[in-house]
Design goal:
heterodimer; A: 324 residues; mainly alpha; two-stranded parallel sheet; 13 helices; B: 375 residues; alpha+beta; Cytochrome-c3 Hydrogenase, chain B; 2 domains; three-stranded antiparallel sheet; 15 helices
Chain lengths: 324, 375
């Protein structure tokens, strides 16, 4: 039987505060650890050693964070100050809000919504606004170009992403992430929906602006894309947001396709995180292997390949469900 | 003009100018390309050069031939050995200085090693421009091996000053020859790996095939040379056409492709590395004994009065030196003809009506070295 952590508290505000504190603590530590993982992993792929400060290079990230925190927060002249300041927060906030929805163990969940999937797809769209404001507000052509690319890309890839989630909802007839995990008691949905999983992973990589879909921040073309003008912890927030978005996308894939917390022997939470981090390693592997697509090729890939493929997948799922 | 005023297209409000450079990750140095853009599409591109001008040609007019020796390798720091040797050969040709056999062979080995290291750096940076970071480090790792080999005999890793009028300054030993042959066997295998990793990649093909095509008439208009020309289907190579040094003694092919796009240039350069290995292997096995520096080199380098032109095949194309001598030991004029300068001049024609991301790919694929453009 499950318990909502939120319901453990009498005072709803206290519940909210505690939940946010736990999630923020987790996401911050997670981002730092993921940056370390990415560096070590890329070093392994590139036949380097990677960071060396502290045991296994673990201190490198702590020092980097210290550096970012101690740096001056520059605001470029002629930038739109309000938009410029609000943008990194807007990019980071949706992930924090959405992380509370994931059923990490079979017994505890922050809050179980019966329409969690709609909520996730709706709120995760907000960070596009944040990225666009960052590009628009910083009064820089490179940033603006990155922002324009990002908006076009995120909107395009949201469609196959949603279309790959719908079959799961149709099979389980529920939108609660907890119930979807429960429905995967006999087998994970990767076995019945492999194409949907592939489409989901590709779209999620594009949604999180990771290589080979990292054209909004393509460093060889646009210097740093939408966050060109950001410094200090504001830049750090974008960094945090990228890694938090990654864990969010991988957690969603875990719940929808890989059976969430389910697994033999080990405790629930351990299985959940094993699956999430395996997917994250896969995404990092993409980044250090592939060159970057061109903008028009990227859009073409979404509209000509992914959208029709996911529609066909949806159609087949519908037919099969009708017959069975 | 106010510092914050933005240059606007007077005819249209939908287009804008974007300065790619002088500080930009993909210009490979301080160079600016003024792009006139309509969204992501390039209407026109104008390269603006001169940020790294060091007046090498003027320097030549103020010092004698020997004092100018360190300069050529600094003109193009990636093909330093070839430039350094080329300058010596130009002066030797002007003064009829005999070069001992052994020195010629040493020069060939060093030249071709240098060519491979330059192409390796190009491979890494080109792929980094396309967004793949990993091949960059693989290529640098291999390049490092060449630099170590050359470092051992020349004492420098990048801007060599190894050749002298009439030979080379230091002799090589057996360890060097062993290192070189070991590298050759190792690198042939590596090349196959690179080809599998890079040439076969779908995204790489998407990004390069049909991108940045040099129209056939551009070759003559802008004096395109080197791999860029060979990728257009012309079998031109200074090493074959007007063999200098002892290049006529070696058996090697001049790889060509017909498409003239970024992909063709990649294939040509990959094959060129293999041909360089062939030349090195032949040179190492035939390496004669004897003097490495001519015994009788004139004390004062004074080419007879007259004009001399000499060109060599640098990794980027034909590098020419025009020496106008007035009979003194200081050149009256030394004009350097550098290939990247010609190639960058063709950029407005090649880049027009491509995408912004293509501009980066094209710049990477023609393999520019900015100090060589600015000189």
């Amino acid at each position: 039987m499950k318990t909502d952590i939120v319901q453990l508290f009498e005072n709803p505000y206290l519940a909210l505060g505690v939940s946010i504190a736990i999630i923020m603590a987790y996401l911050s530590v997670n981002a730092i650890m993921l940056i370390w993982l990415e560096r070590k992993l890329s070093a392994r792929i590139q036949r380097r050693i990677g960071p060396q400060r502290g045991p296994f290079g673990l201190m490198q990230q702590i020092f980097d964070m210290g550096k970012l925190l101690s740096k001056e927060l520059l605001t470029p002249e002629h930038a739109n100050k309000l938009l410029y300041v609000i943008a990194p927060i807007l990019v980071f906030a949706p992930v924090v809000a959405l992380s509370s929805l994931f059923p990490i163990t079979s017994t505890y969940i922050f809050h179980d919504f019966n329409i969690a999937i709609v909520l996730i797809l709706a709120i995760s769209g907000i960070n596009v606004i944040g990225i666009f404001l960052a590009g628009w507000g910083s009064n820089n052509k490179y940033a603006l170009l990155g922002a324009v690319r990002s908006v076009a890309q995120n909107i395009s890839y949201e469609i196959p992403l949603i279309l790959s989630v719908i079959p799961i909802v149709m099979i389980t007839r529920t939108m609660s992430l907890y119930d979807i995990t429960l429905a995967q008691e006999t087998y994970p949905f990767i076995l019945v929906q492999p194409i949907a999983l592939i489409i989901f992973i590709i779209s999620a990589t594009a949604e999180t602006n990771r290589a080979p879909f990292d054209i909004p921040e393509a460093e060889s073309e646009l210097v740093a894309g939408f966050h060109t003008e950001y410094s200090g912890m504001r830049f750090g927030l974008f960094f945090f947001a990228e890694y938090s978005n990654m864990i969010f996308a991988c957690a969603l894939a875990t719940v929808l396709f890989l059976g969430g917390w389910r697994g033999p022997l080990l405790p629930d939470a351990v299985w959940f995180f094993i699956k999430v981090y395996a997917l994250i390693v896969l995404m990092m592997w993409f980044r250090w292997t592939f060159p970057r697509l061109r903008f028009d090729q990227l859009m073409k890939f979404a509209w000509v390949v992914l959208v029709p493929l996911s529609l066909i997948n949806l159609l087949i799922t519908t037919l099969v469900l009708k017959i069975v | 003009m106010n510092r914050f005023e933005v240059e606007q297209d007077p005819k249209s409000r939908d287009t804008y100018y974007l300065n790619m450079g002088p500080q930009h990750p993909s210009t490979h140095g301080v160079m600016r390309i003024k792009l006139h853009l309509d969204g992501e599409r390039i209407i026109s591109a104008e390269p603006i050069i001169g940020y790294g001008h060091r007046a090498h040609e003027k320097m030549a007019e103020n010092r004698d031939y020997i004092q100018f020796l360190p300069n050529p390798s600094r003109v193009d720091y990636l093909g330093g050995m070839i430039y350094n040797v080329g300058y010596c050969q130009a002066v030797e040709r002007a003064m009829d200085i005999e070069v001992p056999e052994r020195a010629e062979y040493i020069r060939i080995v060093c030249n071709e090693l240098n060519r491979i290291s330059s192409h390796l750096l190009w491979l890494g940076t080109f792929l980094m421009d396309l967004g793949a970071f990993t091949p960059f480090l693989y290529a640098f790792d291999d390049r490092e091996k060449i630099l170590d080999i050359l470092d051992r005999i020349t004492g420098s890793r990048l801007t060599y000053c190894y050749a002298r009028f009439g030979g080379v300054i230091l002799d090589i030993d057996d360890v060097f020859l062993d290192n070189v042959s070991n590298f050759c066997t190792y690198f042939v295998e590596r090349l196959k790996e690179y080809e599998k990793l890079v040439i076969g990649n779908v995204i790489f093909r998407e990004r390069t095939i049909g991108v940045g095509i040099f129209a056939p008439d551009l070759a003559q208009k802008y004096a395109i040379t080197g791999p860029c020309l060979r990728a257009m289907g012309h079998e031109n190579d200074v090493r074959k056409d007007e063999p200098y040094g002892i290049y006529d003694r070696f058996d090697f092919d001049v790889p060509t492709q017909t498409e003239g796009d970024c992909f063709a240039r990649t294939l040509v350069r990959m094959e060129e590395m293999r041909q360089s290995i062939r030349i090195i292997e032949q040179a190492v096995s035939d390496m004669p004994n004897g003097l490495f520096l001519a015994a009788r080199v004139p004390r004062r380098i004074r080419p007879p009065e007259g004009d001399y032109y000499f060109c060599v095949e640098s990794p980027r194309g034909s590098f020419g030196m025009y020496i106008a001598s007035d009979g003194s030991d200081i050149p009256f004029r030394l004009k350097l003809r550098t290939p990247s300068f010609s190639h960058i001049s063709a950029m407005p024609a090649v880049m027009a009506s491509t995408m912004l991301a293509d501009a980066v790919a094209i710049l990477g694929s023609i393999d520019i070295v900015v100090p060589e453009i600015d000189r």
